[in-house]
Recover the amino acids of this structure.
């Protein structure tokens, strides 16, 4: 299930009471640049399972210095305008159905970090960023973080996706967040590059349809070649991509990660596998 939160930017939630100077001690620059990730999150059951994908997430983050905070762009928070969670204690959102009770009862009690939310709101100049007090952490965020950071002791903030905007717009917005990597913030995009639920096939548990594999191979090549312009214009990638990416909600988080790549930074692809015919778990590390 996708959630569309239709909040008007005129609600007054953009009011900012703390200047960036006052936040210097909370998230200081220290000369270290945190890596950035795009995670193919797949089923929310990954929150509870020990499988090849969760092990892949853990392996790639095992050598990452402990973040001061985590900023996540999830495919499951779709809004009018752009918002950032600004509460002290974000709730765990169970935005799915048809799964075991154990998953519906799972909690991820990570604190929020209003100071980071305000920094995001003040830093981004290309569009207003509203401070949200209602959303929380949806499964695009907590189903990834629960296996990797099970103690839930790191502050977590989410940024929403304005689905009305094109890929290049999101890419440019994400560039404005790059300085947060120098302040101990681990930035994650969470979605799936190939994501077509209508074509899911339980007989293809560890396989992909030809069009899914073709799209995965193409996007991998573009990622490794740093051809971000073509990736932003995903609608021009051909017929296979049109079927593999029928809507941009799960695809746009990839662009938020790629936009953070510095001129000399390497990129690594991992968990590069198709499942259920029409979903890829392909994940990307920058830095």
């Amino acid at each position: 299930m996708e959630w569309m939160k239709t909040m008007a930017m005129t609600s007054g939630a953009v009011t900012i009471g703390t200047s960036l100077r006052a936040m210097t001690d909370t998230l200081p620059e220290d000369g270290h640049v945190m890596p950035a990730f795009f995670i193919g999150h797949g089923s929310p059951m990954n929150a509870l399972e020990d499988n090849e994908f969760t092990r892949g997430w853990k392996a790639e983050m095992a050598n990452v210095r402990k973040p001061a905070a985590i900023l996540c762009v999830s495919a499951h928070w779709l809004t009018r305008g752009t918002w950032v969670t600004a509460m002290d204690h974000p709730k765990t959102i169970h935005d799915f159905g048809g799964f075991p009770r154990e998953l519906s009862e799972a909690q991820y009690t990570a604190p929020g970090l209003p100071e980071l939310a305000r920094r995001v709101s003040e830093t981004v100049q290309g569009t207003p960023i509203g401070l949200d007090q209602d959303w929380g952490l949806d499964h695009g965020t907590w189903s990834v973080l629960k296996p990797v950071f099970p103690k839930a002791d790191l502050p977590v903030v989410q940024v929403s996706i304005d689905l009305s905007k094109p890929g290049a717009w999101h890419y440019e917005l994400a560039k404005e967040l790059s300085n947060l990597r120098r302040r101990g913030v681990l930035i994650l995009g969470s979605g799936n590059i190939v994501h077509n639920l209508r074509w899911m096939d339980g007989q293809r548990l560890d396989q992909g349809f030809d069009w899914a594999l073709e799209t995965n191979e193409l996007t991998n090549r573009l990622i490794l070649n740093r051809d971000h312009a073509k990736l932003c214009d995903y609608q021009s990638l051909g017929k296979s991509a049109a079927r593999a990416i029928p809507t941009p909600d799960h695809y746009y988080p990839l662009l938020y990660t790629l936009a953070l790549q510095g001129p000399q930074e390497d990129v690594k692809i991992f968990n590069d596998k198709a499942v259920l015919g029409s979903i890829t778990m392909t994940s990307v590390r920058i830095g």
User: Anything to note?
Assistant: The longest helix spans residues 210-224. The two ends are 32 Å apart (CA to CA). The first strand starts at residue 4 and ends at 5. Residues 28-194+253-273 form a domain with the Protocatechuate 4,5-dioxygenase; Chain B fold (CATH 3.40.830.10).
